[in-house]
Specification:
- The protein is 49% helix and 12% strand.
- By secondary structure, it is of the alpha/beta class.
- The strands form two sheets. It has a six-stranded mixed beta sheet, with helices on both faces. It has a four-stranded mixed beta sheet with strand order 4-6-8-9.
- α3 packs across α16 and α7 runs antiparallel to α14.
- It is globular, with a radius of gyration of 20 Å.
- The chain starts with a helix and ends with a helix.
């Protein structure tokens, strides 16, 4: 399969430069929102290059400095959910998950330039590969609880392996990391200035990543905030989501009050699912196992009304006033909670 054929995939530019296969996400108006077609195009290119000895390294990046990938195409997921049901919506999401797992297990070195917004599905595309480059423009997050979803795309695996309970905090609140924080928390490897990406790309066309990056000095600030203050860490060392919120309310730190506000805006069911997903991810030994847990959680979320409502409120109507069902943690039926704990 030639690059010309592969380049026919809408929103994806596929090329070869020297020994490098280059994948450029090119849906700038949608911040490179990942849909099933784009995911399939990436997968086809990876399949074509797997046994091609002339391709020694793969680079995945964006055509726009605004975003690497802002996440999944949630509007498309909502439309499929409302028109065709849970099965179809899940199948579209699962196509993307398969591509992410393919990237994670790819036998050739893969480099991602996570320049700009990298959230949700963008984290899944770019943060499971061996060489992850961030810049001063990078913003990383898993903001799913705010739209009625749950951290997916392998995000629970990444956040469960950060220092202390900082990853749990991000899973629940949808908090953001800059590039330096992403490196410090293990979601990226190299922090460089965006102006250096052109030279790195040129070098990767004829030199393997381990040699290219061996000579690159990360310019990340030395004191990227990672560890939580002890008082905030104690808030997240609770036995339940409800207890976390109680401890945050009693904590005087400004960060605690902001976290509480963020969690109050989130879907209560999504908070419970995110809590469960993060703790389960800490217990499993492989990324694939974490994906399997996430897939089960996503199926449960898709069967509930919050995700369609959250996407409507945040992305369609943009009134930012979702009506969650139920509206309070305490009102989630016991059988619904039990479904989380038997996964």
């Amino acid at each position: 399969m030639t690059e010309a054929v592969l380049s026919e995939v809408e929103g994806l530019a596929v090329s070869r430069v020297g020994h490098m296969g280059r994948l450029v996400l090119d849906r700038p108006k949608k911040l490179n929102a990942l849909d099933a077609g784009l995911a399939q195009g990436i997968s086809q290119a990876l399949d074509a290059w797997r046994d091609d000895d002339s391709v020694q390294v793969v680079l995945i990046e964006s055509s726009s400095p605004r975003a690497f990938c802002a996440g999944g195409d949630l509007r498309a997921i909502r439309e499929a959910l409302l028109a065709q049901g849970v099965g179809r919506a899940f199948a579209l999401m699962d196509q993307a998950y398969d591509t992410m797992r393919q990237l994670a297990a790819y036998p050739k070195p893969v480099v991602s330039f996570l320049d700009g917004i990298t959230m949700g599905g963008g984290v899944g595309l770019g943060c499971h590969v061996p060489w992850r480059v961030v810049t001063e423009r990078s913003v990383l997050a898993m903001p799913e609880t705010g739209i009625g979803l749950v951290p997916d795309a392998g995000g629970s695996w990444l956040l469960s392996r950060t220092q202390g309970l900082a990853g749990l905090r991000l899973a629940l609140t949808g908090g953001r990391m800059d590039g330096a924080q992403a490196v410090a928390m293990g979601l990226a490897d190299i922090h460089t200035h965006s102006e250096a990406l052109d030279s790195l790309r040129a070098a990767l066309a004829h030199t393997l990543p381990e040699q290219v990056f061996a000579s690159v000095q990360s310019d990340a600030p030395a004191k990227a905030a990672v560890a939580l203050p002890p008082e905030l860490e104690q808030c997240y060392a609770a036995a339940t989501v409800a207890e976390v919120m109680e401890r945050l309310q009693a904590c005087d730190l400004p960060q605690a009050q902001q976290d509480l506000e963020d969690m109050r805006r989130a879907s209560p069911f999504s908070l419970e699912a995110a809590w469960h997903g993060w703790h389960r991810a800490r217990q499993v030994d492989t990324l694939d196992a974490a994906f399997d847990v996430e897939r089960s959680l996503v199926r449960l979320v898709l069967e509930r009304p919050d995700i369609a409502e959250g996407i409507r409120a945040r992305l369609v109507d943009r009134d930012n006033a979702p009506v969650w069902q139920p509206a309070r943690l305490a009102d989630i039926p016991a059988p619904v909670l039990q479904a989380l704990h038997v996964l």
